[in-house]
Amino acid sequence: MSSPFQRYANLTAVFQQPTGTPEIANDLGTPALSTSDLIAAAWVQQQQGTGVVQSYGQPLQDGELSRLSYQGRWVLPMQAPQTLMAEQVGPAIIWRLAPDFALPVAGWSSVAEYEAFVAANESRIGARGDFVLAPNPPGPFGVEPKTGDLFGGYLITQVAWADAL
Known about the structure:
The protein is mainly beta. It has one domain (6-160).
């Protein structure tokens, strides 16, 4: 079953989800869990609450980081993987959709395939940044199996300052 929001999907993000397999993270023997890439697609709308991020990353000399809040529905996959946690961050793209352009219905089988899609459709990118997942509890009406789980969070993007005239 596919989401009724499939043709409106306008955000893609790549999240690292733990696989549960232990591995050694570095030369010091620090243990960690291995991860796999999850290429997610969602239909989102920008919400109120746009603001400047005060403490995200290094200070910028030629701009600032802004935080844009989004809410919508998961499209690929329709149900949020239980391995993803709130505040998880992944590189994301907001796409400009048009009658002749939509995200692939079947998604992408690998990160390389996704990156090739991004490179081929560079002109359709509306914004890039890091998407931070918010806690998205189940909706009160139990429609998630048919519509997709709630998807929300915020996109952190760099805003360049313009020179004064």
